[in-house]
Specification:
Blueprint lengths: L3 E13 L10 E17 L6 E3 L4 E2 L9 H14 L6 E7 L9 H16 L6 H16 L5 H5 L6 E4 L2 E4 L7 E6 L6 H14 L1 H23 L3 H17 L5 H12 L4 E5 L6 E6 L2 H13 L4 E6 L6
Parallel strand pairs: 3-5
Antiparallel strand pairs: 1-2, 2-5, 2-6, 3-4, 6-7, 8-10, 8-11, 9-10
Helix pairs in contact: 1-2, 1-3, 2-3, 5-6, 6-7, 8-9
Family: Belongs to the GHMP kinase family. Mevalonate kinase subfamily.
Main location: cytoplasm
GO molecular function: ATP binding; mevalonate kinase activity
Length: 313
């Protein structure tokens, strides 16, 4: 057992394939290591475990209902690693906003798991990490796809296809700008909205879903060949489809328009929509910085820049 230990994780964004993945189409997901979660664990100075974070301070038992997944995860970690029930001081520092489709809950869980295993000096393989992360995610999201848990522990893009995950080799060189609308997204509401649209206009909506799947297939080629302009065009077409599915919003459309005006080759919503974040693609750093500044001046709550080369190694 160490005196102090840490664990870390990062955000993720769905690059292409949101909503169509629900209907067995492929999706490409990018990790965003520029947006991090850090967890530090040490012995508590008081006779009980305590959690410190920007959104909660108190004992694990006092965690609010919306964090029941995290509460259960800590119980399971205690049962497996802390049989003597040594009181712990757990500090969570997260750069990932809640409810924006960036994998906040899975990233926090992953960082805590890594911190626990480091503190108690136990080996941690990927299967064990994902098993524990699933404990939290199953409570928080009910029946998750596993996309978040898979990507927040990876440093490479992930392909989700036929309900299976695989590393997806990217050769894109450029920059991905991620902007937060400041509005929480709700996956269940957005998925239900698309389901209702499908019930009301089956032929049209199935054509859109099929087209979104085709765009992912095309993007496999452009991403693998460092065709950033081709990839940007695919992003723009995907956004048109998502808008027809009625999961966009005026806030999303505003940030996308600004991104394109300031030089992005492509921009779209990421995640479930109806809020959350947008992503914009550019080949040049100075353009990414200009886009970021313009977005912040026009209502974005947060903006990050992810270097794509970092995901290619």
């Amino acid at each position: 057992m160490k005196n102090s230990a840490s664990g870390k994780s990062h955000a993720k964004v769905i690059f292409l394939g949101e909503h169509s993945a629900v209907y067995n189409k492929p999706a490409i997901i990018f990790p965003i290591p520029q947006v991090k979660v850090f967890v530090t664990i040490k012995k508590s100075k008081i006779n009980q475990s305590i959690i410190h974070s920007s959104y909660f301070n108190g004992t694990p038992n006092e965690l609010p209902a919306y964090m029941d997944g995290l509460k259960l995860l800590i119980i399971k970690l205690e049962d497996n690693l802390n049989s003597k029930r040594i009181p712990l001081d757990i500090t969570i520092k997260s750069e990932i906003p809640l409810g924006r489709g960036m994998g906040s809950s899975a990233a926090t869980a992953t960082a805590i798991i890594r911190g626990y295993f480091n503190f108690f000096e136990k080996p941690l393989n990927m299967n064990t990490l994902k098993t524990f992360t699933d404990i939290e995610e199953n409570v928080t999201h009910g029946n998750p796809s596993g996309i978040d848990a898979e990507t927040v522990s990876s440093m490479h893009p992930i392909l989700f296809e036929a309900k299976q995950f695989s590393d997806f080799p990217s050769k894109l060189n450029g920059y991905l700008v991620i902007a937060d609308t400041g509005i929480s997204s709700n996956t269940r509401v957005a998925v239900s909205k698309v389901h209702d649209e499908l019930a009301n206009n089956k032929t049209k909506i199935l054509q859109i879903i099929d087209h979104l799947g085709d765009l992912v297939e095309n993007a496999k080629k452009t991403i693998s060949s460092d065709d950033i302009n081709g990839t940007g065009k695919i992003m723009n077409l995907a956004q048109q489809d998502l808008k027809q599915l009625k999961v966009s919003s005026k806030e999303i459309e505003k940030l996308i328009k600004i991104s394109l005006q300031f030089g992005a080759v492509g921009a779209k919503l990421t995640g479930s929509g109806l809020g959350g974040c947008i992503i914009a693609l550019t080949s040049k750093e100075h353009t990414a910085i200009n886009i970021k500044n313009a977005l912040l001046k026009n209502g974005a709550a947060h903006v990050w820049i992810q270097t794509l080369q970092e995901l290619n190694n």
